[in-house]
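Suppose you are handed a protein chain with no further information: no name, no annotation, nothing but its sequence. What can you learn? This example shows the usual starting point.
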Amino acid sequence: MDNSNMHEVMEKASVLVEALPYIQRFNRKVIVIKYGGSAMTDETLKKSVIQDVTLLKLVGFKPIIVHGGGKAISKWCTMAGIEPEFVNGLRVTDKKTMEIAEMVLNHVNKSLVQMVESLGVHAVGISGKDGGMLKVKKKLSGGRDIGYVGEVAEVNTKVLTDLLEKDFLPIVCPIGFDDNYESYNINADDAASAIAESLRAEKLAFLTDIDGLCRDPHDKSTLISELSVSEAKQLIADDMVKGGMLPKLRNCIDAVEKGVSRVHILDGRIAHCLLLEIFTNEGIGTALIGDNTERYSGKY
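A reasonable first move is to predict its three-dimensional structure. Written in structure tokens, the prediction is:
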């Protein structure tokens, strides 16, 4: 073996050695991955994410995928002659739109199951309606009724824990029902947070179309690698967090305060972002931790 090949082999070995303590630390721990954004629409990125999740499963993690499908829902609504309407970032969902949303989300769900199964891991696709997993109440937007949009009121984790115990990888689409068994669409961030909180997951990872949380959204060099709940609340109080990042950061804070050990905001446009964040000292995104949680010299 020549020197160049030996160097390449040694680099691969060093990567595996670097990953070892993280594999040991998080073995048999639950990690909830909210899957959305560009990583759902770009086929190369989609393959990368599914490879990451199946690898996590194979090395001993207990991953759960919670996925969205907003772009696909908008596409099918337009094809059906329904102009998508949003209020404060939430889709106005009448009965017909709800039917389309459920159809599209179930299609996305089974396509993800197919991809995971093709990599040799057994997956089960479910919605929040299965086993009464996600009970909802109507969600208002600024006091306005926007139709069949639900806010998670209760999580029954039995289906998920049973699947994890039987060594399946659960893939969840965010549809639930209310006390009258009416179907409601749920924001995927909210569904993932509620599930992670109920399971007291070790990690909750949001795949987004941004680098992470930056002090200056226009300057990637200001990326915050790790911050506490108190620091995050201070950033919000100082009006440093804007736009779509604000509700996402609030979801992160809520998840940590309700028992999730660490919440990660990752750029899903980067191939293998999950592996890079979880198995390397540097990491690539932002991690939110509790005020009394041990900080690491590298990362996690």
